[in-house]
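User: Okay, second chain of the day. Same drill as before: sequence in, structure tokens out.
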Amino acid sequence: MRPLMLHRALLLLALLIALPTQAQAQAQSRGPLVLAAASMQGALDEAATAWARQGHARPVLSYAASSALARQVMAGGRADLFISADNDWMDAVARQALIVRGTRAVLVRNRLVIVGRAGTPNLGAMRGIALARLLGRAPLAMADPAAVPAGKYGEAALRRLGAWDAVAPRVVRAENVRAALALVERGAAPYGVVYATDVEGATGVRIAGYFPPRSHPPIVYPIARLSRGVSPEAEAFRRFLLSSAGRAILLRHGFVRP
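Assistant: Same drill. Structure tokens below.
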């Protein structure tokens, strides 16, 4: 082999050997990509910061409705962890064998509330016709009950309380629970159905009433590692969130221990 050809062959071989090493280095330098329900934002941001302070690469956090995130995963999107606001969308991802077996667990729970603008009446233990009359007079902001967990929980609760038929025509459907809260904050709706944790930091909004826990399915947040994930720290971050230290951060933001 001529010297020039030999030099080129050796150079190509060196590049081929270096490529996996570079890819591994890049993967290790980035934190895991986490797809999480919009209602997790404040709590998960703090948890990610605490994780980074321990010397890890900060996780990359992407928030949206659980339905949108699950569809993204099922359409081939690559991520490392998925945190859903209900079991249904995690089940949908699991049915396509897109989560790593043995990594699914319930992270936290939440409570469902009605929020109102300042000056709106408290709803208290109101139900049935009285609740329907009050909520049915004006728009009610909710995450889309057709797909988004918060909306599905809200519809179930209002049906159980005998108010859904009167309220449904005035429901303003938002893409996720944070968007529903924003409608109330901006005055586009006097009331909204959100999670208790969403009220933290809200402007001009207060909790007007709690839904009875038995009026809707339990609000659980399952977490699982995704089979297409590539981050070497994905499992360690999942375990941190499930640890007493990680859960303590989430509980400070109003979530409930599972």
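The chain has ten helices and ten strands.

User: Thanks, on to the next one.
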